[in-house]
Amino acid sequence: MKFSDLGLSATILENIERQGYQIPSPIQAKAIPAILQNKDVMAAAQTGTGKTAGFTLPILQNLSKGRLAKPNQVRTLILTPTRELAIQVSESVATYAQNLPLRSSVVYGGVKINPQMMKLRKGVDILVATPGRLLDLYSQNAVKFDHLEILVLDEADRMLDMGFIRDIKKIITLLPKNRQNLMFSATFSDDIRKLAKGLVNDPIEISVSPRNTTVESITQWVYPVDKKKKSALLSFLIGSNNWQQVLVFTRTKHGANRLTKHLIADGIKSLAIHGNKSQGARVKALTSFKKNEIQVLVATDIAARGIDIDQLPHVVNFDLPNVAEDYVHRIGRTGRAGSSGEAISLVSSDEFKQLSDIERLIQKTIQRKLIDGFEPAHDVPASKLNPQRIQPKKPKKNKFRASDKSVDTGSNRNKNNRNNSTNNRQRNSNR
Fold first, then answer.
1. 52, 157: one domain
2. Ramachandran region of residue 100, left (φ > 0), alpha (ψ -120 to 50) or beta?
3. Confidence at residue 415, expressed as pLDDT on a 0 to 100 scale
């Protein structure tokens, strides 16, 4: 099958060909015809499978048939969890919309709101937005949804993980009921299906890869090493292998800053990208990385969401993630669109549990490699692969009597406050 077999217009086909694509990926081959028929779609696809074009191309085709957006009105709304992903999707829309009479724009937090309001005045056919900034614009009457035709939730699982569920539900109440709904997620978790019940109508379900598997074109390695030698080992690997483009994941923002300083001191051009960086600094770092002006981009999980780089050769887990599913998202930055890639994890003995959870999730034991001069004093043992799924810990039984259930202890209140505070900070940092 070729793109020319999918019923897309000559202009869109020219834009696709200009990007060097001729054959649609599996998610594109299944999603494009369904969306062109105005069907609601629930699609599960790994990062790097071409899902953005999978919904962008048919949306452009369908919008080209109707009237252009009126002032402050939006015809298609694409919601994304992070600023970086919003920018990435908007760039894809602009690329495939060349020579089409359609207007598109992107809005996100961390930058001045007035320029975004000005772009919305004429109306936009496709608006890519993060939930928080979109609600801010709506509260100021800068955007209206009376003529909305299509809603897209991109990376819906990540939006739920980041605590955007209330914002999403509030936005949905503002939209016309008669619309097409498209939901794209890495997995169809129970929470995703619960959200879908109030969103999609008789959807076509599309799944192009097994749940939480890693792309076969990615070679995965584990390098056991003591924690204090991780930075030196990373510099050694980059230098001895002459790696020119490496995306490195750390668990914390401070860890990203420390590692960046170490790499720079070793003569390796590096920049960090995380939630404490301004939007301008994050965009500059990502642009420099894409242009090969720096060798290493050090990122936290949230900041790296939406990074889409053709033929990125190396991803390094400097710290293993606490959540096993995040490993799949991280290494999905490489091995995209059929290209080969390498994912390397620097693992210390205290990360054995995280490594075991990851191997259990992907149903694969990752091969260990020892590097001369970096052998760990505390070894990382071989994990036993358990075919059973990771089960969440059962909550402890309440010791209070039934009549005491309404009692809220100080520890519970503090815990709830901390959880609410964490979710609020995460939402605000990604508005």
1. yes
2. beta
3. 45
Q: Of 107, 37, 40, 46, nearest to 74 (Cα)?
A: 107
Number of domains the chain contains: 2
Please, how many CA atoms are within 13 Å of residue 224, restricted to the half-sphere of its CB?
17
398 found inside a domain: no
Q: Are 380 and 222 in contact (CB under 8 A)?
A: yes
Q: Minimal CA–CA distance to 156: which of 137, 183, 178?
A: 183
Torsion of CA 183, 185, 190, 195, to 10 degrees: -30
Listed residues 317, 334, 368: the one ending a domain: 368
What CATH number has the domain bearing residue 264?
3.40.50.300
Give the C-alpha separation, 254 to 337, whole Å: 33
Residues linked to residue 261 through DSSP beta bridges, in sequence order: none
Element (H, E) at 325: helix 324-331
CB neighbour class for 252 (10 Å; exposed up to 12, middle 13-18, buried from 19): exposed
CA distance 53 to 32: 9
Assess whether 244 and 272 both reside in one domain. yes
The answer to whether residue 391 is domain-embedded is no
Tokens, residue 104: 């598109």
Q: Are residues 32 and 86 in the same domain?
A: yes
Residue 296: inside a domain: yes
| Domain-ending residue, one of 336, 368, 400 | 368
Which residues are paired to 317 by β-bridges?
A: 249, 345
Low-confidence spans in the chain with pLDDT less than 50: 211, 387-415, 418
Residues forming beta bridges with residue 249, ordered by sequence position: 299, 317
The neighbour count for residue 101, using CB atoms within 10 Å, is 10
What is the pLDDT at residue 290?
86
Using CA of residue 257, residue 263, residue 266, residue 267, what is the dihedral sign?
negative
Do 247 and 346 lie in one domain? The reply is: yes
Looking at residue 305, its pLDDT comes to 60
For residue 159, what pLDDT is reported?
A: 86
Distance separating alpha carbons of residues 35 and 167, to the nearest angstrom: 25
Q: Is residue 415 part of a domain?
A: no
Structural domain that includes position 69: 3-207
Smallest CA-to-CA distance from 42 within 201, 274, 164 is with: 201
Helix (H) or strand (E) holding 156: helix 156-161
Q: E strands of 16-96, at which residues?
A: 41-44, 74-79
Does one domain contain both 272 and 175?
no
